[in-house]
Give the backbone structure.
Amino acid sequence: MSHVDDGMLHAYLDGELAPAEAQGVDAHLAQCPGCRERLEEERALIARAGELLALAAPPDREVPPFRAGDVKPPARLWWQVRQPLAWAATIVLALGIGTYLGRGFEALREPETAADAEPARPQALETPLTPERARRESRVTVPGATRKPPAAPASVPAPATPERAEYIARQRAAPVAARAEAPSAQADSVSLDGEHDVLRGPPISVDSARLLLGRDPLAVPGAPIRAVYRARQLGYSAVVIVEQPLDSSTVIEVVNKRASPLALNAVVVAGPRPRRRFAGRRSRRKGCRSTATTPRRSGSANLWPAAGRLPAKAAAAPPAGEAVATGP
Amino acid sequence: MYRTTYRALVRFLYRKVWDAERAEDLAQEAFARALVHKPDNARGWLFIVAANMARDDARRAARERRHLTLLTAEAQESNSATDEALEVESDRARVRAALEDLSPRDREVLLLWDSGLSYDEIATQTGLARGAIGTTLSRARRRLVQAYEAGKSGKHVARG
């Protein structure tokens, strides 16, 4: 075997030779003093190089515990933020839809309250019949208080709140009155208490009321809703009464009406005594302003047999008569 | 595996970036990447990645910044200035200078071997034939010792 070159010697000393090669080197070294000498030189060189490299070793520090969770590769970043992003998107979407729908709803309601009411109100005041009607429709029932001063309007006994309620009621009732003056069609309307023509029915849920009216039943904002009743009234396909206690002695009844799709007037007029009906109705309205009981009787007797079933509510409505009596 | 390889990796990286903290950061990053890629030969893979990162790091780092790092390191060392510490530091600087005298290939093979890689691993990593590793190592060691001794005696060794 020829002499062992430096590379082979280093590999031999590094223990990196294959067993067969190492045996060959061993065999050569055994019979070659020159190579043995070189072997020791290289051994010293390797040791020296190792020492030098050790001098340039980094400061010996504690191996930091490897926490795989700490170092997240950028490739996974998207997967990490995906779920939070999805949540954020969902919330933003929900808020956006909510805002959009909310605006839509307000836009729907606005014409009924603000836009309609303001132009209609002065007109309603000018028309001779309208103010009464508005007043009548917007009366606030004050069960306890109204009994005391028969001459005073219903709004006087109770302090600030009924006035406010009446103001709201006017606002609400004004468009109703304006519309009601339209000759042929009776539009959907909302009014407050004092509707003697209304037959109060069983209590219903708000959902049912919504179904009946085809819209949300209106109520006085800020006041709790005690109950919702179904009611009937001539000329309306659906009537819903929202009962709201204003305080311990005052109850507001917001009467929501849906106009009948049919000309119910005509249907009723086709009854036995159309002329009387109109007269009766007129007189009933007028009478309603003077006494609480008589017109109801006449009205029920003449036109609307069902009115005979007027429940206790009729009795509970004396304020209506009184209050109206003070009207013009 | 992590413990031993981490030390070896830091040792390897330190001789490239000459900044212990930077070397540790790079080693951690290399392990983090290994977790993602799950290479078959994790150890060899780690050194390849570490070498690449060290090269990129060296490219990225401005010469001034490295100079500053060196200065601060020296300032720190000189604060705790004992003769021994100064000696160690000057030795380290000389070894560094000697290493930088080596050709890139010789230096790489030497550093990989010193970090504990086998000839097979070094061959895989550097692309050299396995039989050439011993020769390269013998040359690198010789040059390193020569350059170091030359630097210690104040002589300037011709580069190449």
Q: What stands out?
A: DSSP finds eight helices and no strands in chain B. The mean pLDDT of chain B is 81.
